[in-house]
């Protein structure tokens, strides 16, 4: 990364003299990037300010980008009876932790096997995994299989297993494994170390940045998952955070639509600000953690885009 | 070299086989077994008989799907949305990538890049909340602005024509940052000295972009387009479902294969037509990616996906 920054600095135009057209280009360049960045932020601004706006103000004026009348009512309602949201948090944390740890082990160990140049079937195995990105059973047969044959209905495994192993992550991890010189493995073998020991004591500790990168991708996937919960979970106690958020949104949206179509006031409906406050509570952890772990994601996206 | 059999290989590398076994079994059970369920497209599925016990009914399911007009509609929508999203999100990502790499102010660059990538981390559920907060009739942000300016509120949920634009905009919002990271990597992969030399030789910034930056992006762009073309019949279910929801009035303009399949799966006990739709989607997608890849390989092997 440091090298790339240096390259960039070197390619920077010295202050020779910028022609008028270059100046215009730079102005447009900064302006457009700034505008796009602001557009990316506007929904968040709307979300946060709406969650801090008094309910009567919203139902009279509607949402705005700055709180019309400041109020923390929505948050105090959420945290007055926090059991529901804490339980959903608990489910999300549980599936994220378990899924990420198991997924990391699975991804790393499999990436190690398919990167072993002395393993004859590594290409066959890689293709076996890669093929699933080209062809799959589709939503219907997958759903029927998971329910009827794997008995995943209302089973926590339905939230963990589908996101645990991903070919894209496997290929990224293989790139990380390939960076470790194979001679390390060979010399350990000569010293009489077994395969398992080689993997766990030599390879695994050298994969720290790979583990961080893939671990974060896996964790993000689990944290944001609502789809599997929607398909397979039927008891509310087992809803992860995002799906709980969704089911709350649905109840109010459906009512609001009915009210709008019937031309009646929605003032009596459950709080608008409450929905937004829920979304803030569900998204908060990601937005707070994101700037600190961004570089791992950028590394992962970059490696993933290079064909393996 | 001696030709060795599977058994020999297995004995020699027992540990490696054991290491690969968990992922192999997981993918076999979770991904490959359900593939056999595609056969349901040719069957009349009955729960008590299971996937394999249900009786065959020929091509009837496909007949229902396409005679009702649904098949054509959802196929058209899926393809058009994918083309629209492909063009807009890649174009925007390339432009942003070029601009961000040209920007010299370090903090400005860092902050804007961070902000533009942020939407990638937000779940579609929360995007759904955004869409509703911006476009709903009673309290939506846009209607708030319109009525504060004294205008007439607009009911977007009754206006199918607005939704291709809304969907396309949020798709770009979510993915531009992610895609631009990929293009930025391609641009910064260029040796700094080339740019420097070009400048000393008096190349303008436009010439540098035209003759150095754009060609360096081309292989990445081709790969991205190919990947998207391979998914041209797959709708991004999470996006469509969270943005559009169950708004029946909008289905003509917004229903894609995946949302149609999901709705029928949940609401309709007769899954024949639905199974036909997924079969047709899976098989055609596979055929398209194989054909495209073969053609690309013929033209220029470096650009082939596999």
Question: Could you walk me through the main structural features you see in this protein, from its secondary elements to its overall organization?
Answer:
The complex is a heterodimer of chains A (308) and B (306). Chain A is mainly α and 308 residues long. Chain A has a domain at 83-232: MetI-like fold (Orthogonal Bundle). Chain A is 75% helix and 0% strand. Chain A has 15 helices and no strands. The longest helix of chain A has 34 residues, at 272-305. With 306 residues, chain B is mainly alpha-helical. Chain B has a domain at 69-121 and 174-303: MetI-like fold (Orthogonal Bundle), CATH 1.10.3720.10. Chain B contains 15 helices and no strands. The longest helix of chain B has 33 residues, at 70-102. Chain B is globular, with a radius of gyration of 25 Å. At the A-B interface, helix 1, helix 2, helix 3, helix 5 and helix 6 of A face helix 2, helix 5, helix 6, helix 7 and helix 8 of B.
């Amino acid at each position: 990364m440091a090298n790339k920054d240096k390259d960039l600095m070197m390619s920077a135009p010295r202050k020779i003299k910028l022609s008028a057209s270059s100046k215009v280009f730079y102005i447009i360049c900064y302006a457009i990037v700034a505008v796009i960045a602001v557009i990316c932020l506007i929904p968040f601004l709307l979300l946060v300010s709406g969650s801090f706006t008094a309910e009567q103000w919203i139902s009279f004026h509607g949402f705005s980008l700055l709180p019309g009348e400041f109020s923390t009512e929505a948050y105090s309602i959420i945290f007055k009876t926090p059991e529901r949201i804490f339980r959903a948090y608990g489910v999300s944390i549980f599936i994220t932790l378990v899924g990420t740890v198991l997924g990391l082990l699975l991804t790393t160990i499999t990436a190690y096997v398919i990167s072993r140049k002395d393993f004859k079937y590594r290409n066959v195995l890689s293709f076996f995994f890669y093929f699933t990105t080209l062809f799959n059973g589709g939503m219907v047969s997958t759903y029927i299989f998971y329910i009827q044959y794997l008995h995943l209905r209302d089973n926590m495994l339905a939230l963990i297993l589908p996101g645990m192993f991903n070919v894209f992550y496997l290929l990224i991890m293989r790139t990380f494994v390939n960076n470790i010189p194979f001679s390390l493995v060979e010399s350990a073998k000569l010293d009489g170390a077994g395969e398992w020991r080689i993997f766990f004591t030599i390879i695994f500790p050298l994969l720290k940045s790979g583990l961080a990168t893939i671990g974060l991708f896996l964790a993000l996937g689990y944290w944001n998952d609502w789809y599997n919960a929607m398909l397979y979970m039927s008891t509310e106690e087992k809803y992860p955070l995002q799906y709980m958020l969704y089911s709350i949104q649905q109840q109010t949206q459906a009512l609001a639509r009915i009210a709008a179509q019937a031309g009646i006031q929605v003032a009596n409906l459950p709080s608008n600000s409450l929905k937004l406050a829920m979304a803030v509570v569900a998204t908060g952890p990601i937005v707070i953690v994101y700037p600190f772990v961004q570089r791992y994601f950028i590394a992962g996206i970059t490696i993933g885009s290079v064909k393996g | 070299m001696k030709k060795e059999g599977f058994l020999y290989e297995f004995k020699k590398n027992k540990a490696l086989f054991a290491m690969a076994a968990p992922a192999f079994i997981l993918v076999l059970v979770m991904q490959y077994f359900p593939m056999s369920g595609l056969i349901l497209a040719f069957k009349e599925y009955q729960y008590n008989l299971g996937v394999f016990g249900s009786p065959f009914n020929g091509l009837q399911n496909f007949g229902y799907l396409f005679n009702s007009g649904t098949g054509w509609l959802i196929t058209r929508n899926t393809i058009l949305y994918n083309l629209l999203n492909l063009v807009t999100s890649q174009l925007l990502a390339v432009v942003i990538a070029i601009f961000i790499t040209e920007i010299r102010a370090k903090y400005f660059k860092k902050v804007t890049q961070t902000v533009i990538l942020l939407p990638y981390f937000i779940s579609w559920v929360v995007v759904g909340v955004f869409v509703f907060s911006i476009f709903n009739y009673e309290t939506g942000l846009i209607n708030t602005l319109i009525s504060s300016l004294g205008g007439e509120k607009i009911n977007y949920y009754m206006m199918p024509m607005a939704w291709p634009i809304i969907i396309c905009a949020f798709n770009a919002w979510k993915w531009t940052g992610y895609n631009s990271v990929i293009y930025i990597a391609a641009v910064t992969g260029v040796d700094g000295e080339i740019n420097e030399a070009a400048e000393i030789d008096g190349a303008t910034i436009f010439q540098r972009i035209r003759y150095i930056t754009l060609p360096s992006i081309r292989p990445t762009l081709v790969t991205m387009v190919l990947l998207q073309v391979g998914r041209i019949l797959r709708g991004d279910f999470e996006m469509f479902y969270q943005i559009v929801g169950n708004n029946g009035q909008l289905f003509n303009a917004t229903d894609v294969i995946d949302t149609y399949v999901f709705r029928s799966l949940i609401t309709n006990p007769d899954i024949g037509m639905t199974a036909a739709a997924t079969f047709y989607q899976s098989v055609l997608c596979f055929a398209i990616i194989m054909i495209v890849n073969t053609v690309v390989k013929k033209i220029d092997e470096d650009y082939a996906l596999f």
